[in-house]
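Problem 12. The chain below contains 206 residues. Write out its predicted structure in token notation.
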Amino acid sequence: MIAAFALALAAAAAPDPTYVVERVVNVNGSVTRVSVFRNGVAVLARRSPGQAENVIRQPLSKVELQVIEQVVEESYRELERFDSAGADTPGPGKVELRVAPAGRTPLWLRYSVAAAPSLALARLTQALDGLEARLVKTRVTREDLSGWEPAPGDRVELEDGRVVEVLSVTPAPDRIVVHVQVGDGPASFFVTDEELRRLAVRRVPK
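Solution.
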């Protein structure tokens, strides 16, 4: 039992990324996140201080997804050598960039919005800026799940379009580990309750 719980904690701490690329820009407390998931869903989430988060979710065409995947793949080698330039530079804005092309080790980069980007980073930034501009025309508000406490049997829809059902909830000293099943199939994964609330868009009736 202890070994199984330790395995659950390890899985919750480092789940396999479901995204191809994700960029989070924080400027004076206003946060904008653009994510492209491996199943072809793109998400734009924006939150300003004192306001509810606005989430836009759209499926990409096959060509659009292939373009993003190609830019990420072609940028990967140079991004591996990126030294998070300007991450600690004083200024109003910071950027976190996460890339996880299939079959490669995920990368996590941090830099100032004022930093001079590399050629690869500039190309990827341009692609994400274009995607954000297309998504910003749609306005969708997510359900407020900040007070939701997951319980077995609860079902929620995630940002990437998947519907998951809570199988079990296991308290731990510093976190709560939630075991969820994806759809009606055999796939499942472990996640913390905090992360599940972040990923969930709305509750789904049983």
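Discussion. Confidence is low (pLDDT under 50) at residues 1-7, 9-13. Students who got a different answer should revisit the alignment rule from Section 12.3.
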